[in-house]
Design a protein that fits this description.
268 residues, alpha+beta, 6-stranded antiparallel beta sheet, two-stranded antiparallel ribbon, 35% helix
C-alpha cells in the first residue's frame, strides 16, 4: 500500500515534514506560495497604497472581481438577464461555512494538500494514511468537483492566502508570530490526539484545514471540549476581519492550516 507521506510535495519551499511538525508551529518562519506575488505584482502595488485595512480589503476584492470575472452578466435573446455561474472564493467560503465536510470543504482541503503538502485526516470520516478506503474515494471525487474548478479556483485561494499574510504583516497590532484561537470539539472529532504532555496540555494533529475562532464564548457552542491553540500566523488562510464582504461574519472564524500542535484542552 502507498503511504500518502511518500507522495507529499508542496509549493512553499519548506519540507512538508517540517511544516507539519510541532517545532515549526512553535517557531514558524514566513511562508509564500511560489510565484503568486510575482504574478500579481500589480495587486500588491495597489495594496501598498492602501491607508486602512478596509481600503486594502476593498482593493483586493475589486481586483479579484475583475481578474476572475466574478460578476459575469449577459442577456438572453428575449432580453432577460442571464448570470453565468463561475467558481468564486467567496462561494467556496460560504459553502465551507455551511458544511466543511461537503464538496467545498474537499476543494479547500485539496488546495492545502497541493500547496502545503499536508493531506487531510478527516472528510466525512477518518482518512487513513494509505490512499484507500471509502472516505478517501469520496474525498478524491469531491475535491475534483467541476462546479468549483471552472475558474482557476486554486489561484483564487492562492491570492486569498497571500493577501491574508500581507494583511497580518501590515495591519496586525503586535509583532508576535502567533494568535491564540479556540475550537469547540466533540469526544470523537476530526482531531487526532497524540501524547499528553502535562495536565490538560497535549499534542494534537489537526485536519489539514480547520475552523477556529478568537472568541472563547463562540467556541463553547460547538463541542464538549475547547481546544486552545497558539496558531502561527503563517498557518492562517482567512479570518473574519480580512474582507469587507464575505459570508462568514457571524462566528469570528479563522481558517487554520493543520499539522501537529501543542494545545490546551478545556472541559465545559
Amino acid at each position: 500500500m502507498i503511504h500518502r507521506d511518500e507522495l507529499s510535495s508542496n509549493l512553499v519551499g519548506v519540507p512538508t515534514s517540517v511544516l507539519a511538525s510541532v517545532d515549526f508551529n512553535a517557531e514558524p518562519r514566513p511562508l509564500h506560495v511560489s510565484g503568486v506575488r510575482e504574478d500579481h505584482h500589480t495587486l500588491f502595488r495597489y495594496l501598498s497604497e492602501a491607508a486602512s485595512a478596509f481600503a486594502a480589503g476593498t482593493t483586493f476584492q475589486d481586483y479579484m472581481t475583475v481578474v476572475f470575472a466574478l460578476t459575469l452578466v449577459g442577456r438572453r435573446d428575449d432580453g432577460q438577464t442571464l448570470r453565468h455561474y463561475t467558481a468564486s472564493y467567496l462561494k467556496l467560503l460560504a459553502d465551507w461555512g455551511f458544511d466543511a465536510n461537503g464538496v467545498a470543504g474537499a476543494v479547500l482541503k485539496a488546495w492545502v494538500e497541493s500547496r502545503f503538502g499536508l493531506y487531510p485526516t478527516f472528510h466525512k470520516g477518518p482518512l487513513p494514511s494509505g490512499l484507500s478506503g471509502p472516505h478517501w474515494s469520496t474525498y478524491v471525487t469531491e475535491k475534483m468537483a467541476s462546479r468549483y474548478h471552472n475558474n482557476s479556483i486554486y489561484q483564487q485561494i492562492d491570492l486569498l492566502y497571500e493577501f491574508c499574510q500581507w494583511h497580518l504583516a501590515r495591519f496586525n497590532d503586535d509583532s508576535t508570530a502567533h494568535i491564540k484561537l479556540y475550537r469547540g470539539v466533540n469526544r470523537v472529532d476530526e482531531e487526532r490526539v497524540g501524547k499528553r504532555t502535562r495536565g490538560h496540555e497535549m499534542v494534537v494533529t489537526l485536519n489539514n484545514l480547520s475552523s477556529f475562532t478568537h472568541c472563547r464564548e463562540i467556541a463553547d457552542e460547538f463541542g464538549d471540549y475547547i481546544l486552545e491553540v497558539d496558531v502561527p500566523k503563517v498557518k492562517i488562510l482567512f479570518f473574519n476581519e480580512l474582507l469587507p464582504r464575505h459570508p462568514l461574519k457571524g462566528e469570528a472564524e479563522y481558517l487554520v492550516i493543520g499539522g501537529e500542535y501543542r494545545v490546551t484542552r478545556h472541559t465545559l
